[in-house]
TrEMBL record:
Lineage, opening ranks: Eukaryota, Metazoa, Chordata, Craniata, Vertebrata
Gene name tied to this protein: gpt
Protein name: alanine transaminase
Any single Gene Ontology cellular-component annotation: cytoplasm
GO process terms (BP): L-alanine catabolic process
Root EC class: transferase
Single GO MF descriptor: pyridoxal phosphate binding
EC number: 2.6.1.2
SUPFAM superfamilies: PLP-dependent transferases
Length: 492
């Protein structure tokens, strides 16, 4: 209804707003994103208060809420930044302090850009030479399984590719509405995107007792139940896992592919942590490689989109928003629609595309930058492996906290016991949110409650990244240990 004009005190007419909380897009109101939710907003306020001299029981806020490696002190890879500097300011190509391989790489990237400038738009699907390099990288990674550059779409981080694919998949009304199967616990991008698109979120639970493994009988239960109220069409897998840090076995991936084939589901493989594998006996297997090793019965029929990013692994270059997706067995008419959809956004950030090119085509043996690149890459990954082990070991010494091995990625998702008295005092707030908020106010440690990722009823968790520098991580873990003990005593 149109709202009449009203007169304000100073005689100026005021109209009700066109856009109000009641008239805005209702799906947006359903979107939640715990990783940057109320806990983080409060952490920012606390930082501001500390900087203004307000006395707190801690000297600094330690954020372990988000997988932002550089914000936590991880150092950039020198070669990547050298080439990006050269691309951004080509005058530096005359500077003798830059190694020759960095210069030749920068020249190659600039020659692929309109007007030889990083500031020009690229093709919507991404710079062709970068897509060719991505295709070669995938072939090497997967032991020679062919990869066509035309099936590669460069994206604004992996998130952009995931949301784009979900847009293509969602259709129908009521009981025919598209259902998308996501793991619980899950990365909140998935639940947020499904809420925004008005799709049906179909939960399947990872098995915490078996190190967050994936059980086919649970997938079957989930899809059968979902078919009573929606049309499940896609299955999303995060491997290595976020927030749970598990690495799926090859056998598990085969089982998932068979299941997707049998149930006619489109597979989405989020593989952004593919270099982050730490535990002995664990290995990253790409869905594409396993799919093709299973033979034409599967490799020529199962539809798959897989995603990678510059934001994780040893790179940690989140701010450049670089990523790619590869599509397999997509219907040609749908592929034309996908190309149309990405063209609406013109193109992914060109500096992010340049960085993606360096990730898939790093310095080679014999090149001037090779030794230093390998040294930095190895050091970053081995420190992460140490921190993964440290986190698991320390948390498991705390009575009332149980932490699975952090096999990969950069997070632990320990289960915490919360006394009944504290559950009551939470007063409608999720008990693990109450726990994490108390932890923040008393210690300055910023973690995300498990309820923001989904968890089995009656269980409580928090997610923490293993990214803070080792000395800070030790302080963080000691503070969590001390807090949990006090919290349990207070509410017992």
């Amino acid at each position: 209804p149109r709202t009449e004009e009203k007169m304000t005190e100073n005689g100026v007419s005021s109209r009700a707003k066109v856009l109000t909380i009641d008239t805005m897009n209702p799906t947006v109101k359903k979107v939640e994103y715990a990783v940057r939710g109320p806990i983080v907003q409060r952490a920012v306020e606390l930082e501001r208060e500390l900087s203004q001299g307000v006395k707190k029981p801690f000297a600094e806020v330690i954020k372990a809420n988000i997988g932002d490696a550089h914000a936590m002190g991880q150092q950039p890879i020198t070669f990547f930044r050298q080439v990006l500097a050269l691309c951004s300011y080509p005058e530096l190509l005359n500077d003798s302090t830059f190694p020759e391989d960095a210069k030749s790489r920068a020249r190659r990237i600039l020659q692929s850009c309109g007007g030889n400038s990083l500031g020009s738009y690229s093709a919507s699907q991404g710079i062709e030479s970068v897509r060719q390099d991505v295709a070669r990288y995938i072939e090497r990674r997967d032991g020679g399984v062919p990869c066509a550059p035309d099936n590669i779409y460069l994206t604004t981080g992996a998130s952009d590719g995931i949301v784009t694919m979900l847009k293509l998949l969602v259709c129908g009304e009521g009981a025919t509405r598209t259902g998308v199967m996501i793991s619980i616990p899950q990365y909140p991008l998935y639940s947020a995107a499904l809420a925004e698109l008005g799709a049906v979120q179909v939960n399947y639970y990872l098995n915490e007792e078996k190190c967050w493994s994936l059980d086919i009988s649970e997938l079957q239960r989930s899809v059968d139940e979902a078919r009573t109220h929606c049309n499940p069409r896609a299955l999303c897998i995060i491997n290595p896992g976020n927030p749970t840090g598990q690495v799926q076995s090859r056998q598990c991936i085969e089982d998932v592919i068979r299941f997707a084939a049998k149930e006619r589901l489109f597979l989405m493989a989020d593989e952004v942590y593919q270099d982050n594998v730490y535990a002995d006996g664990c290995q990253f297997h790409s869905f594409k490689k396993v799919l093709f090793e299973m033979g034409p019965e599967y490799s020529s029929t199962v539809e798959l989109a897989s995603f990678h990013s510059t934001s994780k692994c040893y790179m940690g270059e989140c701010g450049f928003r670089g990523g790619y997706m590869e599509i397999i067995n997509m219907d040609n008419e749908v592929k034309a629609q996908l190309t149309k959809l990405v063209s609406v956004r013109l193109c992914p950030p060109v500096p992010g595309q340049a960085l993606m090119d360096l990730v898939v085509n790093p310095p080679q043996p014999g090149e001037p930058s090779y030794d230093n690149f390998i040294k930095e890459r190895t050091a970053t990954l081995s420190v992460l492996a140490e921190k993964a082990k440290l986190t698991e070991q320390v948390l498991n010494t705390v009575e009332g906290i149980r932490c699975n091995p952090v096999q990969g990625a950069m997070y632990s998702f320990p289960r915490i016991s919360i006394p009944e008295k504290a559950v009551k005092e939470a007063n409608g707030q999720q008990p693990d949110m109450f726990y994490c908020m108390r932890l923040l106010e008393e210690t300055g440690i910023c973690l995300v409650p498990g309820s923001g990722f989904g968890q089995k009823d009656g269980t409580y968790h928090f997610r923490m990244t293993i990214l803070p520098p080792t000395d800070k991580l030790k302080i963080l873990l000691d503070k969590v240990k001390e807090f949990h003990h006090k919290f349990t005593q207070k509410y017992s």
